Amino acid sequence: MQSIPFRKVHGSKNDFLLIDENNLSQSLNPSMRKKLAQSLCNRTKGIGSDGILFIQKSKHCDGKMEIYNADGTVAAMCGNGLRCAGRYIMEQVGKEKIVVETMKADLSVQKYGDEDSIPFIQVEISPISFDPATLPFHTDQKQVINEKIPGLSDTLLFTAVSVPNPHLLSIVSKKVLLSDELFRIASYVNGKNPYFPDGVNVSFIYPLKEGEIFVRTYERGVGFTNACGTAMSAASIVTILNGLHQYEKPLTVYNPGGYVKTIVHNDSGTLSVDLIGNATYCFDGNVNVNFESDSFDWVKERTYEEERAYSLLENKAKEAFSSL
């Protein structure tokens, strides 16, 4: 039986268990991390979350983040998770700006300031590519931007982009946003299909007033989530490519769990995104795990008051959603 302390956190209600491996008496291997994700993230039999953020030492950065989805698969990147992990690492090392090692890149994280009395964290989202091979996406085209994909929809135009995890996005009408189309398409491309062998995150974008959009996401390995940071980053790029916003200008991105701000940069054709949003602590706990029998029990040890303050910000998102 191994004792593992954890912290429940969320970014835009995209919730995670944060486990600092530096504090464990016994190191974890990939098989253990997979079992923890599959067991603890279960919202019926476990603690419940969209994934687990494993914090580790880095040889060249202030810390390292490894992300496991609720189904036990490894995610290349998670913007909401990076904000939460980044806040935690900043507090551990006593800095207001750090660099975090992730699977595909070393990314900058810094304190941004308060929004509605809630501390916001700014993280870098990169690298970004439209090369289908980076998703991977089986197609003969060099890139897919605002194009139909046979078998997915007769009317919707899709853009495929990696940020660096794979995303498929479409700007839609209010009617389509509120329909079952997202579930139908996402279920197809995350099952056996000719296009995406590893599955793909799928998002619908609905433009609100100038400088504001609403994004709904079906996350690969998770399902519908309150928010997906990389999806909101990718949606910001697609919004600009459609002439609905500009580079270097803040964009407010609403989602079912809250909102973030994004700024898309274009440096001679190389894109990156600043993702700015909350990184909220919910509670601390401890789980006792028997990896041989796949059994565990857990206890909540400390509750944070941050969630109460976040509810005010969450109401803004609910108002945006209810106005659709």
TrEMBL record:
Species of provenance: Fervidibacillus halotolerans
Gene: dapF
Stored PANTHER family: DIAMINOPIMELATE EPIMERASE, DIAMINOPIMELATE EPIMERASE, CHLOROPLASTIC
Annotated site (Could be important to modulate the pK values of the two catalytic cysteine residues): H167, E219
Subcellular location: Cytoplasm
Subunit organization: Homodimer.
Stretches assigned to coiled coil: none
GO annotation, cellular component aspect: cytosol
Catalytic reactions of this protein: (2S,6S)-2,6-diaminopimelate = meso-2,6-diaminopimelate
Keywords tagged on the record: Amino-acid biosynthesis, Cytoplasm, Isomerase, Lysine biosynthesis
Reported function: Catalyzes the stereoinversion of LL-2,6-diaminopimelate (L,L-DAP) to meso-diaminopimelate (meso-DAP), a precursor of L-lysine and an essential component of the bacterial peptidoglycan.
Protein name per Swiss-Prot or TrEMBL: Diaminopimelate epimerase
Keyword Amino-acid biosynthesis found: yes
Taxonomic superkingdom: Bacteria
GO biological process terms on file: lysine biosynthetic process via diaminopimelate
GO-annotated molecular function: diaminopimelate epimerase activity
Residues binding substrate, per UniProt: N14, N69, G79, N80, N165, N201, E219, R220, G229, T230
Record SUPFAM superfamilies: Diaminopimelate epimerase-like
Family from the record: Belongs to the diaminopimelate epimerase family.
Pathway(s) the chain acts in: Amino-acid biosynthesis; L-lysine biosynthesis via DAP pathway; DL-2,6-diaminopimelate from LL-2,6-diaminopimelate: step 1/1
EC number, as in UniProt: 5.1.1.7
